[in-house]
Amino acid sequence: MNEQLLQYIWQFQYFNTRSLATTEGIPVQVLNVGMLNRNQGPDFEHARIRIDNTLWAGSVELHLKTSDWNRHLHQYDRNYRKVILHVVYEDDDPAPGSLPVLELKTRVSGSLLSRYAELCNARSFIPCEKLIATVPEITLSVWKSRLVAERLIRKGGIVEDYLEANHRHWEESFWWLLAKNFGLPVNGDAFEAIARSIPLRLLAKHKLQIQQLEALLLGQGGLLNDIFEDPYPLLLQREYRFLQKKYNLQPVAHAVHFLRMRPGSFPTVRLAQLAAVIASATHLFSKIIQEESLEKVREWFKADANDFWHYHYTLTVQGTHRIKSIGASMIDNIVINTIAPLLFAYGNVYGQYTLKEKAIRWLEETKPEKNSITKGFECLGLSNRSAMDSQAFIELKTRYCDERRCLYCAAGNYLLKREK
């Protein structure tokens, strides 16, 4: 037993409520358990409890033991002056106090406690690995929708940080997030730093010159500092030195990495592809807000890097010919990690529910991610049909299962309260 479980038991009344009475034998009737308080003060506020023949309205405080009240010094805290009932798992203080005490130890199901202990102590892929197949599909479906919304809201926190840093400029925020996405996990921070160092208004001045765009991106990433022999890298180097002086640019401090990376994901290739996207489209986020067809949006990102890159993965080594197109999987990644979160955040900020719906709909229309987490859930028999499913699984695993937050999970909740 812990206080989180005790809160859960009280909130959902998962105990024998027949003939409730205080430790002194006074009848108790719970009319409203109150609202869970996650801030300072009593555990539940705005409760309504009938004690004997008197109806009380106020707060309820929960503890594992009655003595915890004094141990936590609540008797000296003004926040606890409106407490009307002290709910404890075990009454270890027989002396009558000023507050009525309700003990739950003999009223809580032993099977609930054992199931909770089993979940908390499980060392499998997820705590309920052996039981999740028994959770009704409708419960999981509704829960996955909630998980995706939670994930998009949480990602919206990153967007809000961007907006605070760039004076509420949504297009600039889209540029930063898009660049971070192109960097993938390894170079995401470096690519974001590069984007922050090159304002959109500066890129707009040079969008008709792909070499200058590449020079800006590669130069700010510190990739044009070598001694080159090939004419094209030398051209980019000259362009960058001119633009660097003209705009007083300073390369970012973040290093870009090539180690243990497939050539197609080398930062040089990704930056060249990013330059191609910039050159081929303008006001992308404004267009995304207006567009209803995800297929049309995907077309805007189907860009090929400049010709030089069809024979190169780096600025110095020539390879076999291969067109460096932005593939379907990368565009899926952009939809999942850039477009949907920003669209959802925009809808949240301006109260446009249709945009939030569109963000979720586009996730449903996007292929699912394939990684160790999604494969784990697939092995348990759960369907992974779209990016909405895969995003829900990632949120569930990282924010609930790994942290053993079974009490706040719809699947965990179902398994804990079931009769068998």
From TrEMBL:
It comes from the Bacteria. Pfam families: DUF2851 (PF11013). InterPro entries: DUF2851. This is DUF2851 domain-containing protein. It comes from Niabella drilacis (strain DSM 25811 / CCM 8410 / CCUG 62505 / LMG 26954 / E90).
